[in-house]
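Hi V.,

You were right to ask for the full record rather than a summary. Here it is.
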Amino acid sequence: MQEIDDELLKLPAKELVGIIRRQEETIRRQQEIIERLEKRVAALEEELRESKRAKAPFSKGLRNRSAKRPGRRAGEGLFVRRSEPQAAPGDAMEEIAVKLEAGQRRCPRCDTPLVRGQEVATVEDTPERTPRVIKRFIVETGRCPQCGFQMRGRHPELSPGQSGGNAHQVGPQVRALALGLHYHDGLPLRRVPAVIARMTGIRLTQSALTQSAGKLCEEGALLDGHYKALRKRIAGSAVVNTDDTGWRVSATLAFLMGFFTGDTAYYQVRLRHRHQEVLEVLGENFGGMMGTDRGPSYEAEALSGIAMQKCLSHLLKNLSEVEARKSGRAKTFTSALKVTLREGLKLWQDYRRGEMTLRAYRRRGRKIERCLGEQLRDRALSDADNQRMLDGIGYQHDRGRLTLFLERPEIEPTNNRAERGLRPAVIARKVSHCSKNQRGAKTYSVMKTIFTTLALRTNNIVKAFTEILRGKTLEAACER
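Predicted structure:
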């Protein structure tokens, strides 16, 4: 190296300056390449982080508003009314006469005698362990020849407006079975009619199921009342676990939020997930405890008065990710903290199995809490990642959100209840395009809430949902 330097010094000054300038240009180009590569690496790391986040697939942005709406175009295809079902061998056929009431013989408007007639409406259903039953109603009608006023005989099993194109419908048992296959079991809606046909011999259409679900869940309808009642029950619960996942409404990014207790589930779809949406369900005066992850929505000042338990499983995962990138003494902080957190988890599990008294549980819990306090004391660490974990986890510990379960064992140290509650919705999101509009989002939220709550309370959700469609309360429908 010294010999090369000596040779360069022997060169003429002009030539030496040229060499230096060429070297500087080479260094400048290499520096530009390094900067571009650093930006590319940062972009790839951000893409990797984004890929790990829960999100709704299949969409690259807002829907093309100029595109035609889905469905049959005017003049395309053949529209046929649902025909009257025919009894097959083994089916039971009932014929019921529905008469006008005694005071319905004259027009209430002009007192003209009504021209009496009749029409046919049917309800086909499959009660449990019996063949298909077709109930054929001969409905007496009356029409005023003077003003055109019409009236029909009424029957509890006939829905309002069940005439004309809506005259032939299916009963609550089949509706409960079909809607449960989609909203609870996750079967794509377009597959449900084929399954129902094979199981019962009853023909359905995808559009009929969609319209039926939408009418049941719209504002003021039958299921909407149960939906609102369950939200009030969540707000009055002692312990609530909550989580959210990505969703889309009309190709726009949204969030599906879930709130869960031991016997109740509540879902809602919102375009944003902030503390305002959390308080929309829990209420301003929520007095219970809440189990969550470390999402920023739960760190708002408006939620500071709520007793909260952060999920230890999430913390252990974060610590393991940091520890995997370290070596030597840099692993000491994360490994020791993981041991203490796992001791707390095991202690809670032992108590839930009845292996110790509450007094002994709390005494051992205070020892674990003191150990955590020592490990999470405020100090400066040499490793930046360890310092970040200390600051973040220590902040939660200082607010009493890391060891609440050691004093109040009725709340779980993990958020597994909410994770399990959202898992079926996550699968549905991955195999669908989520919701086409706000009405569909509301329908999914209501249906998912009702069916998941029924699954928590009874073993036969189809029978319970059938009773709800017949007018029973949710509590009465779940009675065994």
